[in-house]
Specification:
There is one protein chain. This protein has 524 residues and is mainly α. It contains 16 helices and ten strands. It has a two-stranded antiparallel ribbon. Strands 2-3 form a two-stranded antiparallel ribbon. Strands 4-10 form a two-stranded antiparallel ribbon. A hairpin with a 2-residue loop joins strand 5 and strand 6. Helix 4 runs antiparallel to helix 5. The longest helix has 28 residues.
Length: 524
């Protein structure tokens, strides 16, 4: 699709948004330049325009580009971007990233000291559930109208509906992973103020699984949809991710199913590794969908906001015009322990770190951006060396799911006991990844070296800053009380173990106050 998102639904959302009060989905438009929910389905084009809104929720913040008509009121509208807050929760809480912003809500991620009043966690929660509400409204409206459609257009709308179901399931998957036990909002509940009931993590897992399987038959085959729209491979990737983490989410291992859905992606023949690792994170990576299964699309002219990949690239930038953007935000960089423990071989081309201008490689003070290594993995620069379309708002798409993650999931599921795969294929997939990383076979490993400990490290080397790390560390028992320590974990330079209750984020205090059906996660 859809490098140019068409934003078509105006909603009035207050800063007190909660799952107990989604009642404004039919708001009259504030401007005649946009379409609202009462008129969007008057034309065939409207069905696709509203669908674009569901995709736009992965990065966008409002109706007027970088600022204006925000969907969630916040002093910094950029903080209401899903990708910005999700990346923060998945990365700054781990060894892969540390922020220098002297802001208590940010530093609490560095130190693993967050609580139920953390503003960024509240914004992430609100963004996920408003996106779910958008999906519900779309599905409800399509269900009301689909019997009146006919022929090829009806078939097309059935595909749109399946995409909306998939996106809703994806948003619920994020909630499953982050909070576990959350409110459940269904299309049949309709609009109006009410207090949804809470669903357990295990039951939510089953619900998401059933929704994805329901959507599958009506989706386009792998690699056959427009760019940045979901297809069957997207569903397979979500299911593989869920099954790999099923023991954490539901208490029951599902490694054979993880292997099954990894195989569906691999055997589809639609995906292959691109020759150069660095090209996956550049401004023209929308041409590299041979490896990227599902991206969050960005466009410096048509999807402007101060979240998304704009946040990732600016946040990693300091003095001068670097990374293809003007104006660094002096924000995040990797921990020293991450770089120096995982990238010990200088031949590994995935180590996109810099030390020029840094006063120290030890981060003695976490709010000093010039301490430690800087990371320039994501750039607003094309593979030809040209800057993106805009020096502020980037063109670089975010690879939410890609083939190497599938290869590594397959290998891990095999090592964890999945009987439907084999170690020969697992080793082959891992060495394909490493041959690209090294440019030859010098980095290849043997069957004896393929261990779970190796795979956790290899996932870090291959997928760092792609919002997988928190989930991975929890699955390996290393996020809180495990042996893995890093700079400033627990609040000390050398790092220390933290409480296991932090493996789930707290439900925001504001929603607990509004919805008496909700029970806080243990330990908060």
């Amino acid at each position: 699709m859809i490098k140019k998102y068409k934003i078509i639904l105006v909603l009035v959302i207050t800063s007190g948004l909660a799952t107990s009060c989604f009642n404004d989905l039919n708001t009259v438009p504030l401007s005649n330049q946009v379409i609202n929910g009462t008129t969007v389905f008057d034309t065939e084009e409207g069905y696709k325009e509203f669908l674009s809104k569901l995709y736009g929720g992965l990065t966008l913040t409002g109706q007027q580009g970088e600022y204006g008509d925000p969907e969630i009121v916040n002093p910094d509208e950029g903080e209401t971007s899903f990708l910005r807050t999700y990346w923060t929760a998945q990365e700054l809480s781990t060894d892969e990233a540390l922020s220098s912003w002297n802001d208590p809500k940010i530093q609490s991620f560095n130190f693993q000291t967050w609580g139920d009043n953390n503003a960024l966690l509240s914004l992430l929660y609100q963004r996920i559930f408003i996106n779910i509400a958008f999906c519900n409204e779309y599905i409800r409206a399509v269900d009301d109208k689909i019997e009146s459609l006919s022929g090829g257009f009806r078939s097309e709308v059935e595909t749109y509906r399946a995409e909306a179901i998939t996106l809703r399931a994806l948003y619920y998957y994020f909630a499953l992973d982050l909070w576990g036990n959350v409110p459940m909002i269904r299309p049949e509940d309709g609009v109006g103020a009410y207090s949804p009931s809470q669903i357990s993590r295990a039951n939510l897992f089953d619900h998401i699984e059933s929704q994805l399987l329901e959507a599958l038959p009506d989706l386009k085959d792998a690699g056959q949809n427009e760019y940045a729209r979901v297809d069957k491979a997207t569903v397979w990737a979500i299911l593989a991710k869920m099954y790999l983490n099923a023991e954490v989410y539901s208490g029951t291992p599902r490694y054979d199913e993880c292997i099954e859905y990894c195989n569906k992606i691999i055997q589809s023949g639609q995906y292959t590794l691109v020759p150069q690792y660095k090209d996956l994170f550049l401004a023209d990576n929308d041409f590299l969908d041979r490896e990227i299964i599902f991206p969050i699309a960005e466009d410096g002219l048509y999807s402007r906001n101060y979240g998304g990949v704009t946040f990732i690239i600016h946040g990693a930038t300091g003095d001068g015009t670097t990374n293809g953007v003007t104006g660094g935000w002096y924000g995040h960089r990797p921990t020293t322990s991450f770089v120096e423990s995982l990238f010990t071989d200088t031949n590994d081309q995935r180590a996109v770190f810099e030390t020029d201008g840094q006063s120290s490689l030890i981060i003695n003070d976490p709010i000093q951006f010039n301490q430690g290594y800087r990371c320039s993995k994501f750039k607003n620069v094309t593979s030809n060396g040209n800057d993106g379309q805009d020096p502020t708002f980037v063109d670089t798409d975010f690879p939410l799911f890609r083939l190497t993650d599938v290869y590594l999931m397959y290998a891990e599921a095999v090592l964890r006991g999945g009987s439907s795969g084999n170690t020969t294929d697992a080793l082959k997939y891992v060495n394909e990844i490493r041959e690209r990383a090294y440019g030859n076979t010098s980095g290849n490993i043997t069957a004896g070296e393929l261990t779970l400990d190796f795979l956790l490290k290899e996932r870090g080397r291959e997928l760092y800053w792609e919002a997988h790390r928190r989930t991975d560390l929890i699955r390996f028992g290393q996020f809180t009380s495990g042996n893995l320590k890093w700079d400033w974990k627990g609040g000390s330079l050398e790092g220390s173990a933290t409480s296991d209750h932090l493996n789930l984020y707290p439900l925001p205090a504001f929603d607990l106050g509004l919805n008496k059906n909700l029970k806080q996660n243990p330990g908060y």
